[in-house]
């Protein structure tokens, strides 16, 4: 097992294996999303308070969950890169940022659209959950801007890893904001007993799983590109690209 | 048609699902495009180097 992990950290091995693994995550992910969306839109009964508007939960919750998970992957990989100097971990951190930003944007938009019919407003500046999620989006933008602003990859890796680690505080705030402060946003729903019927919860869990698999496939593709870029001057890249079969 | 109307919330519900589709497709497309661009840039540089040698 350890040998495999060690092997996985090798850029040429990762480049090859990620190309094989990505479709094995993407296809089941898409199937689960299609099934979960069908259930969430047409099969699950409507909520007795929110009516059919509650069906937004099936895209909003996976997006919000991935917005935090991508950040934790980014920060953890950055920390591993700083401490153990594993080259691949900085590539993972860099690859997670744009996907995390995309899902954070999606969580903010779907939350805002859901808020209009339920709360009577698109946005509430004083709400801790909305504001901390918006700060999370700015953290992603800041992280990507910082990486882009530094030409030296090693320096960019270190500086952005520190920024990502500092930003973990905000992820904790996003998660617990609905418990710590009075918020328009509803409290913990998915894993709290008695808050959601199994008929509604199971399609939601299917959607979360489907989106996670799809996220994994996207992440693998982006890490692969990051590895290729970082290793562009190495012999294995040269041999792979100039070989008659190519390696795309 | 009632199923599509989602009570009075059709516009809200469908716009969320449409936006999700757009963002997921965009993220996947960007990932592919970036890989293609990086790969091609390296290929051009390496071929130019090989020709010079």
Notes on the structure:
The complex is a heterodimer of chains A (248) and B (53). Chain A is an all-alpha fold. Chain A is built from 9 helices and no strands. In chain A, helix 2 packs antiparallel against helix 8 (198-230) and helix 3 runs antiparallel to helix 7 (168-180). Chain B contains 2 helices and no strands. Helices cover 89% and strands 0% of the residues of chain B. Chain B has helices at 2-5, 10-52. Chain B has a domain at 17-53. With 53 residues, chain B is mainly α. The N and C termini of chain B lie far apart (68 Å). The mean pLDDT of chain B is 91. Chain B is rod-shaped and about 70 Å long. The A-B interface holds A 37, 41-42, 46, 51-53, 55-56, 59-60, 63, 98-99, 102-103, 105-106, 109-110, 113-114, 116-117, 214, 218, 221-222, 224-225, 228-229, 232, 237-238, 241-242, 248 and B 3, 6-10, 12-13, 15-17, 19-20, 23-24, 26-28, 30-32, 34-36, 38-39, 42-43, 45-47, 50.
Strands, helices and their partners?
The complex is a heterodimer of chains A (about 250) and B (about 55).
Chain A: H1 2-8, H2 11-43, H3 57-84, H4 87-119, H5 128-149, H6 153-166, H7 168-180, H8 198-230, H9 235-242
Chain B: H1 2-5, H2 10-52
């Amino acid at each position: 097992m350890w040998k495999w992990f060690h092997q996985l950290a090798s850029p040429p091995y990762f480049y090859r294996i990620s190309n094989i693994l990505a479709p094995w995550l993407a296809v089941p992910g898409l199937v689960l999303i299609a099934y979960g969306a069908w259930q969430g839109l047409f099969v699950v009964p409507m909520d007795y308070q929110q009516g059919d508007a509650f069906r937004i939960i099936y895209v909003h919750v996976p997006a919000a969950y991935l917005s935090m998970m991508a950040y934790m992957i980014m920060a953890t990989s950055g920390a591993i890169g700083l401490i153990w100097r594993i080259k691949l971990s900085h590539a993972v951190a860099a690859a997670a940022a744009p996907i995390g930003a995309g899902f954070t944007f999606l969580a903010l938009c779907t939350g805002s659209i859901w808020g209009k019919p339920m709360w009577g407003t698109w946005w509430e500046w004083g709400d801790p959950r909305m504001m901390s999620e918006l700060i999370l989006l700015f953290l992603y933008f800041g992280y990507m801007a910082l990486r882009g602003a530094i030409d030296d990859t090693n320096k960019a890796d270190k500086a952005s890893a520190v920024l990502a680690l500092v930003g973990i505080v905000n992820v904790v705030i996003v998660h617990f904001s609905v418990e710590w402060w009075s918020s328009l946003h509803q409290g913990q729903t998915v894993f709290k007993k008695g808050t959601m019927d199994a008929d509604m919860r199971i399609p939601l869990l299917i959607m979360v799983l489907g989106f996670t698999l799809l996220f994994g496939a996207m992440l693998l593709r982006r890490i692969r590109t990051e590895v290729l870029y970082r290793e562009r001057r190495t012999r294995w890249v040269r041999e792979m690209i100039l070989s008659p079969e190519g390696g795309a | 048609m009632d199923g599509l109307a989602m009570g009075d919330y059709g516009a809200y519900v469908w716009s969320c699902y449409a936006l999700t589709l757009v963002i997921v497709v965009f993220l996947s497309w960007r990932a592919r495009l970036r890989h293609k661009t990086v790969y091609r840039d390296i290929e051009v540089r390496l071929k130019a180097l090989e020709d010079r040698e």
